[in-house]
Design a protein that fits this description.
Elements (H helix, E strand, L loop, with lengths): L7 E5 L8 H5 L12 H9 L6 E4 L6 H14 L4 E3 L5 H4 L2 H9 L2 E4 L4 H8 L3 H12 L4 E5 L1 H4 L4 E3 L15 E3 L7 E4 L8 H10 L4 E5 L3 E6 L3 E6 L2 E7 L5 E2 L12 E2 L1 E7 L3 E3 L4 E3 L1
Parallel strand pairs: 1-5, 2-3, 2-4, 4-5, 8-9
Antiparallel strand pairs: 1-10, 6-7, 9-12, 10-11, 11-16, 12-15, 13-14, 16-17
Helix pairs in contact: 5-7
Length: about 280
């Protein structure tokens, strides 16, 4: 087994350009959908001319509509997709679904509620297949948008109001899919002002690296240790200093204000690369 994962992870901050009429009217989508957009980039990263793509809308409250949305978007890009309507553990054990996950080149988790993903997948054969293929198969891609990105973490932010993000226990933390165990991923990061809730997650697990993904923006993680930014906006990297001067998280009571310092904060854009194991930019 390789020391590093051979597969590729692509967490995306959500609201990625899917070429709908409403999206194309927005000034937020500045990249050409067919050549530079997030979905087109995911296809290029896979390295296959006709990749086998499976969409998993487990997190969504409207999975059928989400599946149709991605089907249309990828059809515009010239690629057919399958949709796995997985709702629970039982669906994760269906032989036909297990076969399709084994044969997929790209698996993409949609947005919605990340806790729905972990409730359905944790402890299942399907998750074992995904984890094993990610570790051992070169070119295998697991992508996730919004909730699908957040679920890739080990320490997973389950929700919470950013207005109270620096009050202990206002941000619920759970166990994610452990695909990117070094990272804590948050989505819609800049637009929804989620700095404080990522700070609380880091205060609870200061050895992790926080990654805040803006809308229509993601990262391509290779070898489980470095990433390159894709998409149209920003990626925020937040990490605690090796020698923290203060972190009161373990001694304060629920609802008390959190203090943590110092923190390193980076804002990265398309094409920039970062080695999160070394904690430095890759130039």
């Amino acid at each position: 087994m390789s020391a590093f994962p051979k597969g590729i992870l692509i967490p995306v901050g959500g609201s990625e350009d899917r070429n709908s009429a409403a999206m194309r009217k927005s000034q937020d989508y500045r990249l050409d959908f067919l050549t530079e957009g997030v979905l087109a980039t995911i296809l290029k990263i896979s390295g296959r001319s006709k990749p086998n793509i499976e969409i998993i809308p487990t997190a969504s409250s409207v999975p059928r509509e989400v599946g149709q949305d991605y089907t249309h978007a990828f059809d515009t890009l010239g690629h057919k997709v399958g949709v796995l309507n997985i709702k629970d553990h039982d669906d994760c054990m269906r032989p036909t679904y297990l076969k399709r996950v084994r044969e997929a080149d790209i698996v993409l988790f949609s947005g919605g509620d990340q806790s729905k993903i972990t409730r359905a997948f944790l402890g299942t054969e399907m998750l074992q297949i995904l984890q094993n293929r990610y570790r051992n198969e070169a070119g295998f891609v697991i992508a996730g948008t919004s909730a699908g990105a957040m679920a890739m973490s080990e320490v997973m932010i389950e929700g919470g109001n950013s207005s109270f993000g620096l009050n202990k226990s206002f941000i619920p933390i759970g166990l994610g899919l452990c695909l990117a165990p070094e990272l804590i991923v948050d989505s819609h990061f800049v637009r929804r002002g989620r700095y404080s809730r990522l700070m609380q997650a880091l205060a609870s697990s200061p050895q992790k690296i926080g990654v805040g993904l803006s809308d229509d923006t993601g990262i391509c993680i290779r070898e489980g240790r470095y990433f390159e930014v894709i998409g149209s906006e920003h990626v925020t990297v937040m990490r605690a200093a090796q020698k923290l001067l203060v972190n009161n998280y373990s001694v304060i009571k629920d609802n008390d204000p959190i203090a943590i310092a110092p923190l390193e904060l980076l804002s990265l854009t398309r094409g920039m690369r970062y080695d999160f194991q070394k904690g430095e930019m890759m130039l």
